Amino acid sequence: xxxxxxxxxxxxxxxAEFAALGRFVIDAMFVHPMAxxxxxxxxxxxxxxxxxxxxxxxxxxxxxSFPMDELRPGREGATSEPGMLGDVVLCPxxxxxQAKAAGHSTTxxxxxxxxxGILHLLGYDHAEPEEEKEMxxxxxxLLLTFLAGR
Length: 150
Known about the structure:
It is built from five helices and four strands. It is α/β, with parallel strands linked by helices. It has one domain: 3-Layer(aba) Sandwich (Collagenase (Catalytic Domain)), CATH 3.40.390.30.
């Protein structure tokens, strides 16, 4: 399994922790061990450009996901197909503001957003109330389990 973390944001993060989280989520979701994931941290200018170009929304956002091979979760005893999971792009500046409002650290917010982005790559969405309930419960469970183990 390959998880590449590329920090171009100017915000200091522990890249190894983000790579470990990516591997943890991929394993927990029974994604094929040869799947590839990219996590990128960018500044607000880059995120604004991506947000406008791909979602036609103004300004920066916290996280965007760009699926590649449309891999889906496997199940115990049967992993998904191998391939490129895709890219999760994070904006630490936006995450810092959200973290302050939520009363936790920027790193905790970025880790939560990383799980959120990976779940989007795996086909989860939160457009409908039931989808949101399922996705947010799963992202909370995955993050808390990861944090408890570190």
